[in-house]
User: Fold this.
Amino acid sequence: MFLGHFAAGLAAKQVAPRTSLATLFAAAQLVDLVWPVLVMLGVEWLRIDPGNTAFTPLDFVHYPWTHSLLMVVLWGALFGLLYRARTGYQRGASAVAALVVSHWVLDLVSHRPDLPLAPGLSTKVGLGLWNSVPATMLVEVALLAAGLAVYLSSTRARNWRGSLPLWALVAVLLLIYAWNLGQVPPGPIAVASSALGMWLFVLWAWWFDRNRAPRAEPAPAPA
Assistant:
């Protein structure tokens, strides 16, 4: 998934209104933020295999430290504990921990059976949504629309910086999603390098979310 993970982060703002959307995005994408580093270090690896699924040519050969169920649960628990220790905000801590785990759940739906359950186990799972391009696009765009609707119903823009950059982010996500369809990357390092660009979306979310307020917060009095 790509859009689906961002959708989860957007929707989580309703559950944890005091948590920055940047933190929610980082949690929802945590394993994909760590994964490219491990690929570059040779700890995890993939190969380019056109036809591997209808939707993507990426064959995720070995990624148990970021994408196995056991490790995702551990990553989520660690993220939640660190967030709780730093902020004291239990709802936010629970939300970020759940978001980390949600990444594996969404990947379970989309991936072919390549998701490990734990490092060292040979059993791999995946429901294979990526075997259908139309179904994948329908599900992901619907998830993004739903997540955006929840975010908009939970927050309001204080100024233009809380509105225009949000819609620009949605447009960029959709453009990247459409552009990647049918693309065959030159190699694993190129894939990992481009994946590091997702950190920019975390910073982008921090920028506009700090210019939005919970819907329950009263609007400022006219000057």
Residues 217-223 have pLDDT under 50 and may be disordered.
